[in-house]
Amino acid sequence: MEKIPDQIGYLILTEDGAVLESGGELENDERIATIIIDLISLSNTVDPLAFGPNENFKKISITYDDHWYVICMSNKKIYVIKRLIQNNTDEGNAIAV
Amino acid sequence: MEKDLDKVVDEIMATPQINGCIVADHQGLCLAAKGTAHVDSAGIIVALSEQACKIQPNLKPPTICLETDKKLCLVQRHGTITGAIFKLKP
Where are the transmembrane segments (chain A) (predicted)? Predict the structure, then answer.
């Protein structure tokens, strides 16, 4: 996780929100861990019509002006990474999709 | 009264790859919904944006992007209004 370019913090969580590993600005940040777990459980209930019942989200990103959080789930673990946005555009909360 | 909002929603829906759009107020009540976006999602979308705002409450509300294999859901809050766009991946 530390090798990811532009990362300024990371968290690896279990499905119930316990912190397995952490580093950088997110070191032992249980407050953010709880928020992320709530966010994931909420995201599972978003629009069953637009997203079919078998279409689970594979990535969630939360974008601020100069940094973004990426949340992914793999092998029953939740990976959260905080990354800097390098090319500052004037578009505000622009998303690189 | 909703004319302006409807116009904005229609404009969004006219954009290629977009198949749904929903706008809700701070209480989670739906103000407008078009395409695949269901009126019932309004509350969840507002809850989602409120939850994301808690991460860094001192900064302005972030844009949330939920991603599946083929689709995207973008959620952004502006003041008391929250908007979500359902989009196909390019």
Answer: none
Chain A environment of B19 (Cβ under 8 Å): 50
Residue A70's closest chain B neighbor by CA?
A: B65
Tell whether the model's pLDDT for residue A90 goes beyond 80. no
The residue count for chain A: 97
User: Which residue in B41, B69, B90 is closest to A46 by CB distance?
Assistant: B41
**What mean pLDDT comes out for the span A55-70?**
90
- Please spell the DSSP secondary structure of A43-73, one letter per residue: HTTS-TTTS-TT----EEEEE-SSEEEEEEE
Mean pLDDT, range A69-95, rounded to an integer: 81
> What CATH number has the domain spanning A7-84?
3.30.450.30
- Average pLDDT estimate for A17-44: 92
Distances (CA, A) of B9 to A55, B2, B34, B84: 25, 10, 7, 10
- If you count DSSP H runs as helices and E runs as strands, how many of each does chain B have, helices first? 2, 5
Domains of chain B: 3-88 (3.30.450.30)
